[in-house]
Specification:
Elements lengths: L2 H10 L7 E5 L5 H9 L4 E4 L2 H8 L7 E4 L8 H4 L5 E5 L2 H13 L4 E7 L12 H9 L1 H4 L4 E8 L7 H20 L6 E8 L5 H6 L4 E4 L1 H4 L6
Parallel strand pairs: 1-2, 1-8, 2-3, 3-4, 4-5, 5-6, 6-7
Length: about 220
């Protein structure tokens, strides 16, 4: 199927039409991104800094770039001038680096805190105690060039939909709990980024406001 046909199929299966679709374009050629752009996609997700930098130079300025992979502190400076949303913030150290670099660019960078909800140890993310330390810590409140706009999580890679649904429910509960709290001024809980090509329908049913879809749009990745 073509990218156009894939996009139509994906959008027709959305249970929440207001959910933001981030087209995960990692390893895809520029021509594929431009085709998706011409079909109306403006949110693109990359998981490698260098690849994002190269593609950003090739696409129109109104593209909203999402850093969805694990971000090393030493690479923040390469994307801070243009990145729209950083999904995978999993430490106070990383938040501080984003804030420092954003200050130099006179920008405020939107971030999501990544929560570890999967059974796989290989996945990144904060546990509930680490999340609480960031939310209630004085250090976080002083970071005025970042805005924590929500949470992100990746479910276990499994065909067992009950496990996936349980993990998404847990993340949604955390999200709702935070929304009810009196949070610091640099918090605004409005986005819940969960769901990928294999589980985005379940994610939307469980409260996702943003899904990250690559294979279902572009086909299998072109591994380099």
């Amino acid at each position: 199927m073509s990218i156009k046909e894939n996009l139509i199929k994906v959008k027709n299966t959305f249970t929440n039409p207001e959910c933001i679709l981030v087209a995960v374009s990692k390893t895809q050629p520029i021509i594929a991104l431009k085709e998706a752009y011409d079909l109306g996609i403006r949110d693109f997700g990359e998981n490698k800094v260098q690849e994002m930098v190269e593609k950003q130079a090739e696409l129109p300025e109104d593209v909203r770039w999402h850093m969805i992979g694990h971000l090393q502190t030493k690479k923040v400076k390469q994307i801070v001038s243009f990145v729209h949303l950083i999904h995978g913030v999993d430490s106070l150290k990383l938040l501080k680096e984003i804030n420092k670099r954003a200050l130099k660019e006179n920008r405020t960078i939107d971030c999501l805190l990544q929560i570890h909800i999967a059974k796989e140890e290989s996945k990144f993310g904060l546990d509930e105690n680490e999340l609480e330390e960031i939310v209630s810590g004085n250090d976080t409140q002083s970071l005025q060039n970042i805005k924590i706009v929500g949470l992100m999580g990746m479910a276990t890679y499994t065909e067992n939909t009950e496990i996936i649904r349980k993990e998404f429910k847990m993340l949604y509960r955390l999200f709702l709990d935070l929304k009810k709290r009196d949070l610091p001024s640099n918090f605004e809980m409005k986005e819940l980024s969960m769901g990928m090509s294999g589980d985005y329908i379940i994610a939307q049913e469980e409260g996702s406001t943003m899904v990250r879809i690559g294979t279902a749009i572009f086909g299998e990745r072109n591994y380099k």
